[in-house]
UniProtKB/TrEMBL annotation:
Species of the source: Alexandrium catenella
Superkingdom, natural source: Eukaryota
Higher taxonomy: Eukaryota, Sar, Alveolata, Dinophyceae, Gonyaulacales
Protein name (record): KIF-binding protein
Length: 250
């Protein structure tokens, strides 16, 4: 199950590359890649159930939840379309609790938090959604404190930052984003560092702080230029730099 999970996650990483390449048919390529990842995970989920291997079943449920969540994100699906993701992640979480696997239980909590965060958009329901998001992330961080999963902790802090910013607590959100960035620097994942820099810059712009946004946007652009010189992420980062200059009054 672990090997299949690594294979599926490698496919998801390839999908991220495809999304940002300047290929004319990238939508079709992404769709095919998602179908392949989902088919592989679904096939092994059935095998684990036939073998009555509860831990492996949890791994495949978690993997499917990740695939479906990213697929829904890519195609901008409605919030209701994330319900199957919620169900799979919840079932996986319960299995890992039974098995005592704190690492994978934390990963399930992070997926649950991301789905709950999407229910925050409605004017009357966002506070309920935000509370569920924080509850899930508190559980994840509590579990991850006993591990050396620096990337997992950083991702949880990134999601918590988004929840704070949604509540207009931008200062706390930015602090958590800086913490997340420090985590990505520690593990030398420059792509995720650049992604976090983009998030930091956008959050500053949300508060009309062009001066604070600019260095983060410029640093993200530099990283993307070095790592992904032919990627559409370059245009995204350049656009952010321009917006920061405009907000600053240049």
């Amino acid at each position: 199950a672990s090997a299949v999970r690594r294979l599926v996650r490698a496919k998801l990483a390839e999908i991220d590359d495809i999304r940002w390449e300047a290929a004319a048919d990238f939508d079709r390529l992404v769709d095919v890649a998602f179908e392949g990842a989902e088919s592989l995970a679904s096939e092994h989920l059935e095998e684990t159930r036939q073998m009555n291997n509860r831990w492996a079943e949890g791994v495949m449920l978690l993997t499917l939840a990740e695939v479906e969540k990213e697929q829904n994100e890519y195609f901008n699906c409605k919030v209701a379309d994330f319900d199957p993701v919620l169900n799979k992640a919840t079932e996986a979480k319960k299995i890992f609790q039974e098995m005592g696997d704190r690492q994978l239980e934390a990963e399930a909590w992070i997926i649950l938090a991301d789905v709950h965060r999407r229910h925050e958009e409605g004017p009357s329901s966002w506070r309920i959604g935000a509370n569920q998001t924080f509850d899930c992330l508190d559980q994840a961080l509590l579990l991850l404190d006993d591990t050396d999963d620096v990337q997992g902790i950083a991702k949880a802090k990134h999601l918590m930052a988004l929840a704070y910013i949604h509540r207009n607590e931008v200062g706390e959100g930015l602090r958590l984003m800086e913490d997340a960035r420090d985590g990505f620097i520690r593990i030398q994942n420059r792509r995720l560092e650049a992604y976090e820099l983009i998030s930091i810059a956008e959050s500053h712009l949300q508060k009309r702080f062009g001066r604070e946004a600019l260095p983060n946007a410029e640093e993200a652009l530099q990283i993307y230029s070095e790592l992904l010189p032919d990627s559409r992420r370059i245009a995204e980062a350049k656009g952010l730099v321009i917006r920061a200059h405009l907000k600053r009054g240049d």
